[in-house]
Amino acid sequence: MPTPKALDISPDTYVIRHARPADLDALPAVEVRAGALFAEAGLSDIADHEPGDVESISAFMRAGAVHVAVSDRGEPVGFALTGLLDGVAHLYELAVDPAHGRRGLGVRLIAAACGYGVSKGCRAMTLSTFRDLAWNGPFYARLGFNEVTRPNWTPGMHVLHAREIDLHLPVERRFFMRKDF
Questions:
Q1: Helix (H, G, I), strand (E, B) or coil at 78
Q2: In sequence order, which residues have a C-beta less than 8 Å from that of residue 52 and are 6 or more positions away?
């Protein structure tokens, strides 16, 4: 499936806010559309993964850790799932509909996720991502995230790594990153 062209919409027409129950049903579709980028990068297996279910996203929302990017039409077009892992904030997922991409929404969602971490008294945020995809490792590096080498992994990172193996992700291409606040 070809990537939709970005819409000509100013970043000012988007709002970043906490997710509401009415947003939940739209988020899996955003994840599917965002996942199409992985197919274009030769990672069809990832693009074909089932999106997160509404129950799981709802659990993140109850913890106050789902931020959405909402278009001027009131529809969610991106989201960030954030929680706590080993005493720091952890970005579990970031997804932006490619039709709304390249508008700074990912950056704004990450800023909101970091704000969540600060509000919880965290001094850092971690994430797991692809090292070599432009919208993954290099993107996060530009935002101040740095690689966490394996000897410095926390227990939670080891658990997440095992989960990525279970999901058949190409873990040799993935790595953990951290940004101190």
A1: strand
A2: 27, 28, 31, 81, 93
Please check whether residue 11 is in contact with residue 57, taking contact to mean a CB–CB distance below 8 angstroms.
no
Are 174 and 128 in contact by the 8 Å Cβ rule? The answer is yes
Q: Report the DSSP pairing between strands 88-96 and 124-130.
A: parallel
Contact indicator for 63, 33 with CB cutoff of 8 Å: no
Give pLDDT tens digits for 122-166: 999 999 999 999 999 999 999 999 999 999 999 999 999 999 999
Ramachandran area for residue 74 (φ above 0: left; ψ -120 to 50: alpha; else beta) = left
Q: Is the per-residue pLDDT at 4 higher than 80?
A: no
Structure tokens at 153: 């992994």
Q: 93: part of which helix (H) or strand (E)?
A: strand 88-96
Residue 125: closest CA among 81, 68, 95: 81
The gap from C-alpha 136 to its chain's centroid, in whole angstroms, comes to 9
